[in-house]
């Protein structure tokens, strides 16, 4: 079945948002991604199951990101208006796949080497399905693909742009200012 070309509840892009983690700010985390050329996978010390790490994305439309950030107290991570947006085609080619939402008690059939795709869902008590998550096993390399850089505003664009590697600058399709985008809604 071919893809439906226009759906306001889905996006043709995946977004990786960064947040403040300990001593690292969301802006510094984004700069690190753009210098290293990859989104580092997180391991099972967080929410990724199994023995592999995974880079995490959301398929929510950009117009919905503001609600996700504005209600960060309801999410598992405090995301900010910093990140990367890339096409699903490029993400798929890099190994990203939708997660499998299931209760832990029903996930035994998932082979150990694919447990990184499982996210716990116990309707009414544990539910992260609003994140519309996709994951890529291990680190996700940005080399050779085009992507947009998400920042709050022009001031932050200047800071991030000055810190980007030459390769990141060559593959960046531009900056998306979330403050501006959310003001339009």
What strand order characterises the main sheet?
A: 1-4-11-12
**Tally of helical segments:** 6
Sequence of secondary-structure elements: EHEEHEHEEEEEEEHHEH
Radius of gyration using CA atoms only:
16 Å
User: What about the largest sheet?
Assistant: 4 strands, mixed
Structural class: alpha+beta
Any low-confidence stretches, pLDDT <50, length ≥5? Answer: none
Instruction: Tell me which oligomeric state these chains represent.
Output: single chain
Share of β-strand residues: 25-35%
Give the overall pLDDT as a whole number: 86
Q: Helicity level, as a percent range?
A: 25-40%
Q: What overall form do the CA principal axes indicate?
A: globular
The number of domains is 1
Strand segment tally: 12
Kindly report how far apart the N and C termini lie: 32 Å
Please give a structural write-up.
It is a single chain. The protein has 185 residues and is α+β, with helices and mostly antiparallel strands. The protein has one domain (13-98, 130-184). The protein is built from six helices and twelve strands. The strands form four sheets. A four-stranded mixed sheet has the order 1-4-11-12. The chain is globular and about 50 Å long. It starts with 12 loop residues before the first strand and ends with a helix. The relative contact order is 0.21.
